[in-house]
Amino acid sequence: MLVKTRKIYTQKYHQSGFTLPELLLAAFIGLIVSGSILSLTTNVISDSQKEVARSKSQQQMKTALNYIAEELREAVYIYKGEQLDNKIIPYLPSFPNTKKPVLAFWKIESVPYDNTGNLPNDCASFADEDLKEECNSLKIERNTYTLVVYLQSTDDSDPKSWKGQSRLERYELRKYSNTNSLTKNPGYADPRRETSFGDWPFFDGTNQQALGSLASQTEPLVDFVYSNDPSSLPSLPDCIVNPDENIYPSPTYDSADDDDYSRGFFACVSFVDQDSNSTPDSYQDVKIFLTGNAKGQTGYQTTDSLIPLETQVMTKGVIQKQSGD
Question: Is 195 within a domain?
Answer without folding.
Answer: yes
